[in-house]
Design brief:
With about 375 residues, this protein is α/β, with parallel strands linked by helices. About 45% of the residues lie in helices and about 15% in strands. The chain has helices at about 10-30, 65-80, 95-105, 120-130, 145-150, 160-165, 175-185, 205-215, 230-235, 275-290, 295-315, 340-345, 350-360, and strands spanning about 35-40, 50-55, 90, 110-115, 135, 155, 195, 220-225, 270-275, 320-325. It is globular and about 65 Å long.
Length: about 375
C-alpha cells in the first residue's frame, strides 16, 4: 500500500500559490512601513506629568486602522477564506474602510465599504480613490446586515467588528501596545501610568489591555468615549446588550451597541466626553501640534487632561500615552467647518477655554454637557 503524500491538484496548487504571494505582499508592506511617531508634550500646569501622543495618522492609509486592516487580511488568508479574484466587503464608518481599500488595491481585489450615509464626504472619496465602492446605508444600524448580504453573494466579509480581537496578535508582533511600550523605554517615566484610547471595534482597547497584563506592567487603561455611548453603559453595568443613551457626531467611536470585541475586564476606567468638548479638543490639537486630527483624537486629549488633573491633585507624577487616530483633513467639511458646527448647534468656545485653562493650571475645569 502506498504511503506517499497526495499530490495537490493543479487548481488547488494555483490557488495556494496566489495565497502565498498575497501573504508575501503583506509581509513586505509591513517591513516597508516604519513605526509611527510618539510625540511628546509638556504642559505648564502639569509639572512632573509627561504627555505622549502616538501619531497613527502617518500610516500609508492614514490611520490607526492600517494595523487592523493588515491583520484582517492576514486572518482571512490564513484561514482559507480569501481567494484570488474574490470581492471583499466590510461595514465601516470610514477609517477602517479606507485602510481595507488600500490593502485590497495592494492585493488586486475589489473592495466594497458598507457605510452610514452620514459618513464624512472625504472618507467616502478616499475609499473611491483607492478603487473601492461605497454602499451607503441610511439607517446606520443596518450596516452589518448589508455587509452580510454582500457576503451571501460570495464576497469575503473581513468583519472588523466580529474578528478584530481574534485577528490581532495581542502578545506582540509590533501591535499598537508593544509599539508604545518599546518606544517609551528610554523616556524619563518609561512605564505609562495611563494609556488612553477610544473604542470602535474594541480591538485596540482589548489588545492594549491584554498586552499590559501579559507584560505584567502597572499601567492602567482608560477608554475615552462620547457621552452616553454603548461602551460607557456596557462597561459600567457589565452588560453586553447595553445601548447608547444618545447618538454622537464623533465618527469611529461611540457605537450605538456594544460590539463583541470589547472586553470589559481589561479596562480600568471610562471617561465620557461631550461632542462639543471632543471637537474643541481636535481644534486644540492643531494649535499644539501644528496638524489637524479627527474627533476621536480630540476625545483622547480631553480624557488625558482629566486623568492628569487627578494625578496632580493627589500629588503623583507619571506619564500618559494616547493615540492620534486619523488626520483632520478627513473632517474638513464637518468638524472643522464653522457652518457645519452652527448647523449642528455646536459651540466649542467654552470647552476650548476650559481645556486651555486646564493646561495652564493643572486643574480640571468641568465641561458643560
Amino acid at each position: 500500500m502506498s504511503t506517499a503524500t497526495p499530490i495537490i491538484g493543479a487548481p488547488q496548487a494555483a490557488e495556494r500559490g496566489w495565497e502565498l504571494a498575497a501573504l508575501e505582499k503583506l509581509s513586505q508592506e509591513a517591513a516597508r512601513s516604519a513605526d509611527t511617531h510618539l510625540l511628546k508634550l509638556n504642559f505648564p500646569g502639569f509639572d512632573g506629568i509627561d504627555f505622549y501622543f502616538k501619531d497613527e495618522s502617518v500610516h500609508p492609509s492614514g490611520s490607526l486602522k492600517h494595523r487592523l486592516a493588515r491583520s484582517l487580511y492576514l486572518y482571512a488568508l490564513c484561514n482559507g477564506r480569501l481567494h484570488e479574484g474574490q470581492a471583499v466587503v466590510d461595514a465601516s464608518s470610514g477609517s477602517t474602510a479606507i485602510s481595507e481599500a488600500w490593502f485590497a488595491r495592494l492585493l488586486g481585489l475589489h473592495f466594497t465599504a458598507v457605510m452610514p450615509a452620514v459618513t464624512a464626504p472625504r472618507k467616502i472619496h478616499a475609499v473611491q480613490a483607492l478603487g473601492g465602492t461605497c454602499d451607503l446605508v441610511e439607517d446606520a444600524g443596518q450596516v452589518h446586515a448589508r455587509a452580510a448580504e454582500h457576503a451571501a453573494r460570495g464576497a469575503c466579509h473581513l468583519d472588523q467588528f466580529g474578528l478584530a480581537v481574534r485577528a490581532t496578535d495581542w502578545r506582540g508582533n509590533n501591535n499598537i501596545a508593544e509599539s508604545i511600550i518599546t518606544q517609551m523605554m528610554r523616556e524619563p517615566q518609561p512605564v505609562p501610568t495611563w494609556i488612553v484610547c477610544g473604542v470602535g471595534t474594541g480591538g485596540t482597547s482589548t489588545t492594549i489591555g491584554r498586552y499590559l497584563r501579559y507584560r505584567r506592567l502597572a499601567t492602567h487603561l482608560c477608554v475615552a468615549e462620547p457621552t452616553g455611548s454603548a461602551y460607557v453603559e456596557g462597561w459600567r453595568t457589565r452588560r453586553h446588550d447595553a445601548v447608547a443613551r444618545q447618538p454622537t457626531l464623533i465618527e469611529g467611536i461611540g457605537r450605538p451597541l456594544v460590539e463583541p470585541g470589547f472586553t470589559f475586564e481589561v479596562v480600568d476606567d471610562v471617561i465620557e466626553v461631550p461632542d462639543h468638548a471632543a471637537i474643541a479638543g481636535a481644534w486644540l490639537l492643531e494649535t499644539l501640534l501644528g496638524r489637524r486630527y479627527g474627533g476621536s483624537s480630540g476625545t483622547n486629549l480631553v480624557a488625558c487632561l482629566q486623568l492628569a488633573a487627578g494625578l496632580r491633585k493627589s500629588g503623583q507624577r507619571g506619564s500618559i500615552v494616547s493615540l492620534l487616530c486619523d488626520p483632520g483633513e478627513r473632517y474638513a467639511e464637518t468638524l472643522f467647518n464653522p457652518d457645519w458646527l452652527v448647523e449642528h448647534h455646536i459651540d466649542i468656545g467654552p470647552a476650548s477655554q476650559a481645556l486651555k485653562q486646564s493646561i495652564a493650571s493643572g486643574t480640571w475645569h468641568a465641561l458643560a454637557s
